Amino acid sequence: MTHTDADSVGSRTVADIRLDFPAFTQTSGGLAPAYLDSAATSQRPRAVLDAEREYLEHHLAPVHRGASAAVGLSTTLFEDARAEVARFVGAGDREVVWTENATDAINMVTLGIADANAGLGGADAARFALGPDDEIVLTEAEHHANLIPWQRLAAKTGARLRPIPVDEHGLWSIDDAAAAVSERTRIVAFAEVSNVTGYLAPVADMVELAHRHGALVLLDACQSVPHRPVDFGAMGVDFAAFSGHKMLGPNGIGVLYGRAELLDALPPARTGGSTITKVTMGTAEFLPAPHRFEAGTQPVSQVVALAEAVRYLDAIGMQEVARHEAAFAERVVEGVAAIPGVRIVGPQPGAPRAGLVSVGVDGVHAHDVGQFLDEAGVVVRVGHHCAQPLHRALGLTATTRASAHVYTTAEEADRFVEALAGVRRFFGVEQGVTA
Where is the Aminotransferase class V domain positioned along the sequence (predicted)? Predict the structure, then answer.
């Protein structure tokens, strides 16, 4: 690996890209903190901030409500943004539903299935019904957002959750999945990229396995859509979820992807204005997807800004983004592997991984590691990363995670490694029990 790999993204240098981000241009001398927490929330380029401000200052009006020119323009911006995001992820315009975030998107699916189980949605929704003989298969590495909603659905329907186990590094394989999936499996849900290990899931093999058994697939794409090329249509997944704030976009906006025929059949989890075709005092009939799911006033400025984030990433090129972040991960893993008493979670040196690295430090709790790094000017995430079952399987209470995006430099990767190397010496611990 060369410095060029980590200091450029396609035709642009990282230094040039950082000029687009106000967060990196407002320091008053000295070395800016290394922001290595993009897997939690990414920084936003000026173009995204300006797009939202431009809408709010000059085009604010309700969408799909009224017949004024202002409403028409606002609605056009809103739906054009849907088309832009849909194109970015290989979806049709009717297959992108606006949600609050990815967690909300996954809950919309599980709550819709629960309503189908209760008899709502009619004959079309009956395809989603679950019973005590049915199983929902998840990996042990899932974020709580892709675990707890399924737990609740299982409790409501009597279905059983069946986990795909992880190994000592927090990894699972298609063989592990094949041992868990059976003719009783109705749903398979997993992350394309683990937010803890950086593991790249075998999506094509998982989709083929699930569909061969007649099961639906929900993909948690929170750590993939912002960082690598994604085409849900080509992947063949049935549902997927991702968030705007992890892909240089605003908070408060997420996306539920679903194949159009499935979305048209799924009962809407939230109901009210803008979702209906006909309402009486006793009944309601709903619009086709996506509008059947978008009850009430929508986050229009966030939608417009998310489309601008997509344009920004597109201009750089998602293949180049993935290449840049892989170089970051390789650099960090190589450096961390040489530090005594530090355990790398997930793929080991030389194996492919996404642009994030989590570690455990022998004898020092992750919260103390994080505070030490923070004082050294390195911003990371510490804790269980909303993945307690995975950490329990690893025998760890918590880990320390460094993660990258298009603006992350090689120098920041090196600064993380250098600071991490001083943790155990600072706390005066000998090599021994893992924290």
Answer: 35-416
